[in-house]
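To the structural biology subgroup,

Please find below the input and predicted structure for CHK kinase-like domain-containing protein, which we are adding to the shared reference set this quarter. The sequence is reproduced verbatim from the submission form. If anyone notices a discrepancy with their own records, reply to this email rather than editing the shared folder directly, so we keep one authoritative version.
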Amino acid sequence: MVDPAALGLTEDDVELIVKRYLQEKRDKYNAKFRVLSYHVKRLSEEPIGYLGDHYFLNVVLREKMVHYSAEEEEYAEEEYLSFFLKILPEQVPKLADYVREMGCFRKEIQLYTHLIPRLQDVTIGTKPFAPRAYLTKDEKLLVFENLKAEGYRMLENNKSLLDFAHLEVALKTVAKLHAASLVLEERTKQPIAKLYSGHLNENVYIDDETYVRKTNLDNAIKALCELIKRIDKYKNSDKLDYILGKFPEVIRRIYDFARPSTEYRNVFNHGDLWNNNLMFKYDEPEKTAPNSDPGACAAEGGATGQQEHQPPEEQQQPQSMANGEKRRRRRSDLVRPNPFNFEGTPFTEDREPWSCVRDCVMIDFQIARYSPPAYDVMSLLNTTTTRAFRTVYLDRLAKLYYEFLLAELEWFQIDVDEVFPGDHFRDSCEEYKLAGLIDSILFRHLTLLPVDLVASCKECPVPVSFENLMENSISDLGIKAWDSCENYRFMMTDLLSDLVDTYIL
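Predicted structure (tokenized):
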């Protein structure tokens, strides 16, 4: 167990969290209750995120009955609630300083205090695109609903890859976020960057010699060049020097991509769409009960195996609304392909049988930005797939995203052709394919590192602090992973070859 006070969590905070939960989930605005006990425990001994520590807050309470005596209340049923805590990693001072300098917690707290609730109000009556935050505090603590208790899971043992079915549902959620952004701007007649000044300022790709991430990117380029030298089709090529000379220039184009576009309509972008920042809900025989399991996983935890399926017919039908009306959804004219089976990818784990994926939420908005929708879409599709998959399905999935965006905007009686025409989206996708590929390379050369290899580095107690290591350490770890981990070698070869073949040679 962990002392809640050591994390900055007080008894008054816990009561406020429970009160907000009862108001939001059960519409009990005048609920009287008594917190009997609460405790905090770490989500996992292994780090599951890269820019924060993660915990459960488990609460035991009893509702106060108006006509009950104190003695009678003692026999009233106890209730157990579970919440998810995200804390600034102060136990690792260098990492905490790094996160503070990037402004990650400050940004996410600002977003969950102001902008995300506004967007959730805009899209009321639809499924949420993100978990509810019941408390933000001191630029170092956030308390969320427990998504596991709502039936959501994070995919594990899938090498961070998603199949067609999961991507389809994920893109529907991304479209909800982008549509909410567009609806808010259309209603207020002001860009979000002006409505919420500073909330979506770039905090990752800043081309400033004094900024910590500038050093990280320069070191990453050197480490990635060492990996390119080890790819079979380049290492003995007479074009190797040319590739290594052009590679830094191509990677540094990310600085321009990360700025708001002057050509295409910008929206609130999540900015970090990869396996660990997406949670899925499935149609299963046993439904998860409402929030009542004090030991359930939370917003950034959970597990399930890599799945395969054909999207069922009912997923393509209109969704029922709370008022009984049907929400219009356009059926895609695309033939739903069989899910990609990751052929050629060195998976060894058995995949568990499962039922159909039907919903998704996004978590972790610490590096959100204001940019065209294509940035999020292309980043997701590059980070969670292989090159072979993208060759077959990328354009189809991009078209599906646009159909989802169209349906969302139609629901709010907004013509997508007026706010974001299809030809603009297609053109922006072509342009931002490179942004998605660069993003994927820069993040995955770190997130794919084997945990045991990272843990063996004395300077690196958790994976994210790897970004603070000296350039030689970065290269050394990458080379060790290349030599010892088949999946790391396969995926980095796949990504780097795509960039070199498409944008350099």
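Summary notes: DSSP finds 17 helices and twelve strands in the chain. Residues 422-447 form the longest helix (26 residues).

Regards,
Lab coordination
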